[in-house]
């Protein structure tokens, strides 16, 4: 008999289910805001606001950037992963780490590094270059993980069926990489649609930067809301496109089993070329920002080390990040629980809705929370609580995925056994379930913590006046072209983010990329 | 163990469906205090669901479950005081053996090591294992710890859901013996769910056969084997040879001769059950005497200690049609060669299965 038969729960719907539905509703607030705001906009004014040359330019910029950068990331990320996993280039473990390292440099810091050295990176080409260098690990890491986990038996069978080595790879290996590449591309695309700091600094206007500008000039007016609606539409199109391309294959990691490891193939005469390519990639993605940071720290004319301010911003950042991690993990717990233990229609709905909020750009989430709080709950506007809610909406899946995979490894029979031993459900939670998912909770909280540290857009809009984080302080200085003054804040962010990048590359970290 | 008297279990009229799928239909079962009852059935027959209803993990759609005459259907599992051992043991992976065994004890008793040692001894394990974690134990050890854990807080009954199915053959036998001894020593009422006929027949004092959600027969093992309620049960609890026969004067005439019958069947045509080990094969002397049943060996499967032999009856007795083939079990050293002819006799009583012979 299947072991998933549910136990009788006589006290109405379980508390966890009620909590999960409440969290799901919260994550849908930003989408609801966009829909309501667009519906309320006066048709004539809306047409005038949307159908103008400026919006056309934003559309071309945004779509062009997404197409160019996702393509570049797919090609570069897959190629880099292939070289590192499937060939015998010297120093492979080091290269694997170096491919993940760019994740420790927030895109807006990378952009600042490039633009502070040469203004040639302003505009479309520069935007594609900088965002590709920042985001290609999102493709490279899952592809590398998939390649590592692929059972060579498929390729061997293809060879045994008479295919040559190239044809075997094309027909037996590349299709297996498709889900990983698509998942990475989707992630890159959503990040690009949400990217504000990096593109603002490169003077490359997209919908996100335009919403920010509209917010700066006219607060949460109809212009910002309508632009947000278009941006949300683009996000949904991207999601739908990725799902369609993925077809029936899962959009998640594949091949986590214990396949027989495949001996890497000697790169032979291609070795110098492969090494050169990897070195160039790492130099551009990691060397340039670190060199620029180093230079500004040492010799910038505006460089200053106001220790008190730096210390305060660090403490504030760590405090907010800890708060964000705690709130997000707490809210993710019921969603993960429902996803694992109530895998019915309601459970699926609740789980999916938690992805919707996080797929939306930070600027839209922030705009929604500003508008809703000002109109409905003025008491929480300009409070840290509202900022933490924004983080929870944005980063919920990171915690949820980690907890869910930990929870999925806890057989429901353990609950049954514990109760048959005379222990009540709440005590079963405390004595069995929580201890067993503690590692997942920790990993999820760490991922959220590190995401909050480098979050810029929502923090700029929602941080209470007088609350300065490393990101907002950096932004204030960099935006004013005080590159030297911005450098120490950037360096601190990179230092704090480094463990995140490391954590993401660890195999077996739930919610990680490999 | 802890002064808790074993409870009798009464399941009455229990039905359960999952969606449109009916799993249990009007199930009745009585388990005497301190006895071991096996619920035997093929996979998917509803036996696990029955166990989970008794434990309180699943609520029945209809019917009642009573412990010592008191209905418990409305009690959550933690208040029924019924222990549960699952197929994989389901030990808590974050707790060591002592932590697992003591899980259901009140807080002050959890640290008292002698309780844990006592329980480990009861299930035949070294006290030295108390500090090990589940992943450091063999499958058989895990099951014994699971039983010790279920018995620790003084349960009125223990339910075992295929506790030996995940073990390999060698471990299964020794674990079975240890569990049976521990249950007997503890004196607890026990219900064992299994699809293994040998396990049910060898361990239980009473076997309930469940088929497609219905209880088909409840009987002590020997009676179940010798006098199954119908041909299906007969075939399920062991290999069966079913023969058309005619009953008269307390005997049954079949193609294999005239046999004494068990019980007092009505005279007339019927089907009788013969177990393969009742069929004795002997070498044919001089091509066989008139009236002897002669059969040719079609194939033989050799197991070492014994062998099963499939035979085609060439000349039988009486007017009944010759059956396709019959199965005989012989000692391994006496297995005949394939292709030879043997003389065939039936020892002991045959059992009418209650079904009228057709055709």
Automatic annotation (TrEMBL), chain B:
<dbReference type="GO" id="GO:0015408">
    <property type="term" value="F:ABC-type ferric iron transporter activity"/>
</dbReference>
<keyword id="KW-0408">Iron</keyword>
<keyword id="KW-1003">Cell membrane</keyword>
<dbReference type="InterPro" id="IPR027417">
    <property type="entry name" value="P-loop_NTPase"/>
</dbReference>
<keyword id="KW-0997">Cell inner membrane</keyword>
<keyword id="KW-0410">Iron transport</keyword>
<keyword id="KW-0406">Ion transport</keyword>
<dbReference type="InterPro" id="IPR050093">
    <property type="entry name" value="ABC_SmlMolc_Importer"/>
</dbReference>
<dbReference type="GO" id="GO:0015418">
    <property type="term" value="F:ABC-type quaternary ammonium compound transporting activity"/>
</dbReference>
<dbReference type="Pfam" id="PF08402">
    <property type="entry name" value="TOBE_2"/>
</dbReference>
<keyword id="KW-0067">ATP-binding</keyword>
<dbReference type="InterPro" id="IPR013611">
    <property type="entry name" value="Transp-assoc_OB_typ2"/>
</dbReference>
<feature type="domain" description="ABC transporter">
    <location>
        <begin position="9"/>
        <end position="237"/>
    </location>
</feature>
<dbReference type="Pfam" id="PF00005">
    <property type="entry name" value="ABC_tran"/>
</dbReference>
<dbReference type="InterPro" id="IPR008995">
    <property type="entry name" value="Mo/tungstate-bd_C_term_dom"/>
</dbReference>
<dbReference type="GO" id="GO:0043190">
    <property type="term" value="C:ATP-binding cassette (ABC) transporter complex"/>
</dbReference>
<keyword id="KW-0472">Membrane</keyword>
<dbReference type="InterPro" id="IPR017871">
    <property type="entry name" value="ABC_transporter-like_CS"/>
</dbReference>
<dbReference type="InterPro" id="IPR003439">
    <property type="entry name" value="ABC_transporter-like_ATP-bd"/>
</dbReference>
<dbReference type="GO" id="GO:0016887">
    <property type="term" value="F:ATP hydrolysis activity"/>
</dbReference>
<dbReference type="GO" id="GO:0005524">
    <property type="term" value="F:ATP binding"/>
</dbReference>
<dbReference type="InterPro" id="IPR015853">
    <property type="entry name" value="ABC_transpr_FbpC"/>
</dbReference>
<keyword id="KW-1278">Translocase</keyword>
<dbReference type="InterPro" id="IPR003593">
    <property type="entry name" value="AAA+_ATPase"/>
</dbReference>
<keyword id="KW-0813">Transport</keyword>
<keyword id="KW-0547">Nucleotide-binding</keyword>
<protein>
    <recommendedName>
        <fullName>ABC-type quaternary amine transporter</fullName>
        <ecNumber>7.6.2.9</ecNumber>
    </recommendedName>
</protein>
């Amino acid at each position: 008999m299947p072991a998933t038969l549910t136990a009788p729960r006589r006290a109405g719907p379980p508390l966890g289910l009620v909590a999960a539905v409440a969290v799901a509703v919260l994550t849908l607030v930003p989408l609801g805001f966009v829909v309501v705001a667009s519906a309320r906009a006066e048709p004539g004014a809306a047409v005038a606001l949307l159908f103008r040359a400026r919006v056309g330019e934003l559309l071309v910029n945004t779509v062009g950037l997404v197409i160019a950068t996702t393509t570049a990331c797919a090609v570069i990320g897959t190629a880099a992963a292939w070289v590192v996993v499937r060939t015998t280039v010297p120093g492979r473990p080091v290269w694997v780490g170096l491919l993940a390292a760019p994740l420790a440099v927030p895109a807006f810091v990378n952009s600042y590094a490039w633009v502070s050295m040469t203004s040639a990176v302003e505009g479309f080409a520069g935007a594609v270059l900088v965002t590709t260098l920042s985001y290609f690990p999102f493709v490279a890491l899952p592809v590398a993980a998939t390649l590592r986990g692929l059972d060579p038996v498929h390729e061997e069978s293809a060879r045994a069926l008479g295919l040559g080595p190239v044809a075997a790879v094309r027909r037996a290996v590349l299709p297996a990489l498709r889900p990983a590449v698509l998942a990475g591309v989707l992630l890159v695309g959503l990040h690009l649609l949400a990217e504000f700091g990096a593109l603002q600094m490169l003077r490359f206007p997209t919908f996100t930067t335009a919403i920010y500008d509209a917010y700066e000039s006219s607060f949460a007016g109809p212009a910002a809301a309508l632009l947000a609606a278009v941006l949300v539409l683009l996000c949904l199109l991207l999601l739908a496109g990725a799902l369609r391309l993925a077809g029936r294959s899962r959009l998640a990691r594949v091949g986590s089993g214990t396949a027989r490891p495949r001996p890497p193939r000697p790169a032979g005469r291609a070795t110098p070329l492969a090494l050169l390519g990897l070195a160039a990639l790492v130099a551009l993605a990691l060397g340039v920002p670190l060199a620029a940071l180093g230079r500004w720290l040492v010799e910038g004319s505006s460089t200053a080390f106001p220790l008190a301010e730096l210390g305060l911003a660090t403490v504030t950042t760590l405090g907010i990040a800890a708060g964000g991690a705690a709130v997000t993990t707490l809210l993710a717990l019921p969603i993960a629980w429902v996803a694992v233990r109530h895998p019915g229609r309601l459970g699926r709905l609740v789980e999916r809705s938690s992805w919707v909020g996080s797929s939306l750009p930070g600027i839209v989430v922030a705009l929604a929370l500003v508008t809703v709080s000002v109109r409905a709950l003025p008491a929480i506007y300009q409070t840290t609580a509202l900022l933490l809610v924004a983080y929870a909406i944005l980063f919920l899946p990171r915690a949820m995925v980690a907890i869910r995979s930990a929870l999925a490894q806890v057989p429901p029979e353990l609950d049954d056994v514990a109760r048959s031993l005379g222990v009540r459900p709440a005590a079963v939670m405390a004595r069995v379930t929580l201890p067993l998912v503690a590692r997942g909770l920790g990993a999820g909280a760490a991922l959220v913590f590190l995401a909050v540290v480098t979050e810029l857009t929502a923090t700029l809009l929602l941080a209470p006046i007088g609350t300065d984080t490393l990101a907002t302080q950096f932004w204030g200085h960099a935006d004013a072209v005080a590159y030297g003054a911005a450098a120490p804040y950037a360096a601190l962010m990179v230092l704090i983010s480094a463990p995140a990048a490391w954590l993401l590359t660890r195999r077996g970290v739930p919610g990680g990329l490999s | 163990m802890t002064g808790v008297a074993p409870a009798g279990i009464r399941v009455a009229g229990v039905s359960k469906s999952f969606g449109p799928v009916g799993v249990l239909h009007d199930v009745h079962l009585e388990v005497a205090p301190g006895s071991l009852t096996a619920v035997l059935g093929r996979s998917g027959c509803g036996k696990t669901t029955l166990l989970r209803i008794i434990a309180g993990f699943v609520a029945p759609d209809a019917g009642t479950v009573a412990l010592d005459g008191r209905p418990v259907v409305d009690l959550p599992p933690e208040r029924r005081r019924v222990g549960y051992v699952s197929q994989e043991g389901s030990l808590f992976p974050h707790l060591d053996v002592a932590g697992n065994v003591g899980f259901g004890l009140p807080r002050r008793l959890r640290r008292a090591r002698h309780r844990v040692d006592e329980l480990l001894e009861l299930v035949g394990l070294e006290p030295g294992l108390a500090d090990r974690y589940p992943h450091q134990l063999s499958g058989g050890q895990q099951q014994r710890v699971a039983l010790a854990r279920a018995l620790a807080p003084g349960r009125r009954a223990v339910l075992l859901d295929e506790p030996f199915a995940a073990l390999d053959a060698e471990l299964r036998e020794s674990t079975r013996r240890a569990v049976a001894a521990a249950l007997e020593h503890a004196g607890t009422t026990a219900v064992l769910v299994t699809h293994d006929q040998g396990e049910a027949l060898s361990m239980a004092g009473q076997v309930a056969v469940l088929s497609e959600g219905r209880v088909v027969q409840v009987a002590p093992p020997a009676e179940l084997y010798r006098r199954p309620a119908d041909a299906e049960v007969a075939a399920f609890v062991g290999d069966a040879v079913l023969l058309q026969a005619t009953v008269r004067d307390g005997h049954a005439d079949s193609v294999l001769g005239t046999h004494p019958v068990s019980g007092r069947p009505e005279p007339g045509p019927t089907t009788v059950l013969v177990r393969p080990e009742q069929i004795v094969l002997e070498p044919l002397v001089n091509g066989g005497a008139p009236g002897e049943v002669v059969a040719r060996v079609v194939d033989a499967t050799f197991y070492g200690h014994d062998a099963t032999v499939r035979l085609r009856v060439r000349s039988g007795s009486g007017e009944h049609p010759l059956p396709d083939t019959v199965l005989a079990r012989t000692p391994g050293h006496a297995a005949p060669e394939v292709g030879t002819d043997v003389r065939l006799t039936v020892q002991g009583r045959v059992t009418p299965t209650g079904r009228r012979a057709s055709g």
